[in-house]
Write a structure and sequence with these properties.
mainly alpha, about 170 residues, elongated, 2 domains
């Protein structure tokens, strides 16, 4: 049974042209599935070629008939609002970039558990260490472990201690 596409504002070629211009892979598959259906392919064949089920293709045909090509995009997902505002995240970025002050924070490098305490104290938001790690990752920070340096390190004493014998 062929699909009933009632809109006539796009031909098969125009749907394929839209698919080439589109950046969203899901919308491209939907456009190509509709193009196949307009060419007269069966619902099974068009759906299989587009990587979906018959019922899913039927649902997208209905959305296309109602809203056109724009109706083939995914709807915006609202989800839960972020616990930290953008202003707070920028402040957190500055704090991470500056690094911890050993006198104030009692640490020589930031860990998620340390940032958790700072975020709770500054912003009154209790986040898990996993969530803080995800936020840091999303903001472009990576987990790097460098050898910590004690603030009272005597560089001259360390140089004197190093072996200076010539290598054979």
């Amino acid at each position: 049974m062929p699909l009933d596409i009632v809109r006539s504002d796009h031909s098969v070629e125009e749907l394929r042209r839209e698919a080439r211009r589109c950046d969203d892979a899901k919308q491209v598959r939907r456009l190509l599935g509709l193009a196949l259906a307009l060419e007269g392919a069966t619902r099974d064949a068009a759906a299989k070629a587009a990587g979906m089920t018959r019922q899913t293709l039927r649902d997208w045909v209905i959305r296309y008939n109602e809203r056109g090509v724009e109706g083939l995009k995914d709807k915006a997902r609202t989800g839960r609002p972020p616990r930290l505002s953008e202003k707070q995240l920028l402040e957190l970025d500055a704090l991470v970039e500056q690094g911890p002050d050993i006198g104030v924070h009692n640490v020589v490098r930031w860990r998620c558990v340390d940032l958790k305490a700072v975020i709770a104290a500054r912003f009154g938001v209790d986040l898990s260490e996993d969530r803080i790690g995800a936020i840091m990752h999303r903001r472009g920070y990576r987990r790097l472990s460098v050898r910590p340096r004690h603030p009272e390190t005597d560089e001259a004493a360390q140089e004197d201690f190093k072996k200076t014998s010539p290598r054979p």
